[in-house]
Amino acid sequence: MLFKNLLLQTSIVLSSLSEQGHAIPTLEKRATLDQFITSENTVALNGVLANIGPSGSKSQGAASGVVLASPSKSNPDYYYTWTRDAGLVIKALVEQFSVSKATNLQTVIQNYISANAKLQTISNPSGSLSNGAGLGEPKFNADFSAFTGAWGRPQRDGPALRATAMIAYGNWLLANGNTAAATSIVWPIVKNDLNYVAQYWNQTGFDLWEEVQGSSFFTIAASHRALVEGSAFAKKVGQSCSVCDAQASNVLCFLQKFWNGQYIDSNINVNEGRTGKDANSIISSIHVFDPAAGCDDATFQPCSPRMLANHKQVTDSFRSVYSVNSGIASSSGVAIGRYSEDVYYTGNPWYLTTLAAAEQLYDALYQFNKAGSITITDVSLAFWKAIYSSAATGTYASSSTTFKSLTSAVKTYADSYVAIVQKYTPSSGALAEQFEKSGGQPTSAADLTWSYAAFLTMTNARNNVVPPSWGAASANKVPSTCSSGGATGTYAAATNTNWASPSTPSTPTPCSAGSSIAVTFNVLAKTVYGENIYVSGSTSELGSWDPTKAVLLSASQYTNSKPLWSGSVKLSTGASVSYKYIRKSSSGAVTWESDPNRSLTVSSDCSASAPTVNDTWR
Ligand code: NOJ
Ligand code: NOJ
Region annotation Disordered: residue ranges (predicted)? Predict the structure, then answer.
């Protein structure tokens, strides 16, 4: 009887098992997929909470609000908090909390936010808060002290992900009448992270897998989302984020460069010797999923033709590299790793990437149903043909039988990825980081917090429990030419973390009329002996574009590895200034930087710290 039930209800699991010629599954594996998801979801929520200090059952000794990557202290040692993992985990918890309203979750979220107000101020090998650079540090010790060992740093996705997690809770506070906490506790922390993103998005850094120094699709996609929702959140708390507004479309423009016509090349501006097919892109798509957006290619929505094509290219790249995948039909899901060339722990499938492959498809289903149609284009046709062989280009309304066949094929296909996770999850439900490519045994870090969070978000997507919109549908206009941009951020320690009675927000102190403020110009420019670098610009203090009146910068901090020219100029508060650097040779010949002019707006908030621009000679 049990077996008959199983046949009816778990055809996916069974067919993939029998295709692989594996032995009869053990009893606990005979739960249907639905039963597995229900019970595993509880394990996953407990698994996340166990790893968060100070009272998580597996995080004794971690500071309040620390989200450990894993309790594992050796092979590998993951007893640290990564800004990326923590941001994604808290984003998932806010999603849970919005549904369950469980007060224990709210406490965890608030502890995380309070802890990060402090964490932002900790100087570390990436730098400090004064010019924002320290916000790009990838990980900290479990007591929140800086980790000073060698590491792939900076990782610029962290501030964007932290901002998104906090904005999610901030929006919940606003919607539930707690404007004071959103304004005086959440906003000052978010503001630093948004300024970081606006200032540094165009500089290279390490990818989410901490290996490749270049431009990572995930980082840029997360940056775009953070700037767009950050600007909207600022307005809701009575502030503004002008650097967000100035940079968001530049970031979106750059994001398009990762699409190579067939798939996302996940790492660019680097020659890493890989195909670029990487779960990076699938995780990006679920991160930028917006339930109010259409199947938009420009913002890489889960249902977009580009991201469906990419889903097939990335998932197919794992079919032949793991023996757990051998013999599985191309219409069925497989175990997914980070990227096929991976050698970390010999290169295995990961739970969180396999779950992400499912989640993208559940998100896409939500979007198809909401749109009321599916359009198959030349770009997405191969994806569709693999799961529905008679698929053809065209638009299919939800009333058509083709729409029903297509959506049912996507659902079955998505479920088949979760069935892979079910198959390789031990009966305890514990989710490690990886499972072995040949035998499927859990390996690398045990109880990976991110694995559990990935299970929670997959489950919600499968149940059509979707997060609020972040504004993708009105932030998808790609400028015709990309500007490299990079605004100058202002940073200040966030000091208010009293959730019981958040004080009224501090208002900016307007500068008095006619005042000026010293702006520091830093530019990296290689020079030969006898050459000097000047800053020239549109205002009288910068010589009104007359090169003979430009301001000479100092080379006192110049080194071969960091060719820094620097100087301060007093500029009128509130002024909009255009500028460029010029180079003068020993004979007096002047070379201007290439176009366009650079620009900055001098703050008119005299309580903020003095601004600095960090540029590189063009
Ligand atoms: C540790 C990082 O966390 C991991 O992503 C990377 O693959 C290994 N170091 C090897 O560089
Ligand atoms: C290695 C992963 O590659 C990276 O993405 C993650 O942040 C750390 N492990 C911690 O989980």
Answer: 593-618
